[in-house]
Specification:
The chain contains 5 helices and 7 strands, in the order H-E-H-E-H-E-H-E-E-H-E-E. The chain is an alpha+beta fold.
Length: 158
């Protein structure tokens, strides 16, 4: 879930020993709040209740490299990657660009490119935990875990 074909080769490159495992420090008072605020703003736009921060999910997201770069498991997960500094707000904004590919009326995905968006707004998810992982080569990975997981086939996200 939440892993696009475009990003897989870059992810594999980073996870072949170049990972520095830590939550990247940002010059913000509460670095987790940008994730929560960005998610909850998107959820409010489609009439879905807010998510709350969960430290267990954040720890799970932080362990992404030890899972050999695999997503999913017991939680729904989104991944964003890019070069340089990436805030939670920027990652969520990136995932929300897929909204245009989701057709609510038919509950279908145009071009199969909206699973990041639907995970952000999945109405049954209530907890969120995210981590930022910076590689030695400068790539930044943002992983968000959701509980309960979303993107259940046949169910509407909202």
């Amino acid at each position: 879930m939440g892993f696009t074909r475009f990003y897989f080769p870059l992810s594999l490159f980073c996870f072949t020993g170049l990972v520095l495992r830590h939550v990247y420090a940002f010059p913000v008072r509460n670095p987790n709040q940008d994730f929560v605020d960005a998610h909850n703003a998107a959820r409010a736009q489609v009439g879905v209740g807010p998510l709350s921060w969960n430290h267990t999910l954040a720890a799970y997201a932080l362990n992404f490299p030890t899972r050999n770069g695999t997503l999913g498991g017991p939680y729904g997960e989104n991944l964003a990657e890019g070069y340089g500094l990436m805030t939670g707000e920027e990652a969520v904004k990136f995932w929300l660009t897929e909204k245009q590919y989701y057709d609510y009326h038919s509950n279908s995905y145009v071009e199969d490119e909206c699973l990041h968006f639907t995970l952000v707004v999945w109405q049954k998810s209530v907890h969120l935990g995210c981590a930022r992982i910076k590689c030695h080569n400068g790539w930044m990975f943002v992983i968000c875990s959701y509980d309960p997981p979303g993107n259940i086939e046949g169910q509407r996200p909202y």
